[in-house]
Task: structure prediction
Amino acid sequence: MTAGWGQGIRLAGGTAIGYGVLWLAAGVSGWLSAGTLTLAAVLVAGGLLLVTGFQSWRGRLAWGYGAGATVLLSCIYLAYRFLATGQLFPSGALLLVGFLALFLVLLGFFLALAASPGDR
Result:
């Protein structure tokens, strides 16, 4: 039995929302304590993750693609920050969580696209 279209896109949206909240919390915490992540990047990425996550949670597939792209771009940014600084926290830890979030978002897309066309 396969998951329906709505379950898959909700998995992608919920993952983006959770990752966005984690991104904002860790980013603001790191910025307040050591200034490791720039506040502008934290607000933009976290805001994009929350907006696209909520819209895809509501069943809008195009916003789900935006959520996936935002998770991917945040992973690229965090990989750059991790390689530049060599610090495990916050960049390295968020990068590992970002890979997990990217996997779950892609899994949600595959579940949504594997559903029958009548479920959409």
